[in-house]
Structures are given as C-alpha cells and as structure tokens.
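Progress against Task 2.4 (sequence-to-structure conversion) is shown through the following example record, which the project officer requested during the mid-term review.
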Amino acid sequence: DLTLSASAHDFLRLAQRQEDPDTLFFSRRLSIEGDTELGLVVKNALDALELPVLDLQQFAPHQVLARFTAWRS
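Structure tokens generated for the chain above:
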C-alpha cells in the first residue's frame, strides 16, 4: 500500500507542473507512507509521461457552458 499526502494547493501545483515533487517532499509538504519503493516507481512513471499541464481555465463556468452547448447541438 502507498499513501501520498499533501495539501490540495500543492497537489494542484503538481498537476500544473508548477512544483517539483522532490521539492515538496524534501520541504515536508508531500509525505509518503507505506511502500516507499512503490512511491518512487509511481513518481518516476508519472515524471516520464508526457501529460498535458492542467489548465484551470477550461473549468471556468463560461467555458464549461460553451462546451456543453456545443455538445448539445
């Protein structure tokens, strides 16, 4: 088992690629409990993925409404 803990703000910064997980870990803002070897494997796998940066603008109400309207037509 593996548990990663951080504030919502820090998880958001990770998703937006504004913060490095190692920086959060060594500043004690990200904690890992359980199988730390698995934690390292997960971290390295996520770092290797070419995921798009989370753009919060796409979740703005007017953007969501526009997508919904386009989908319905």
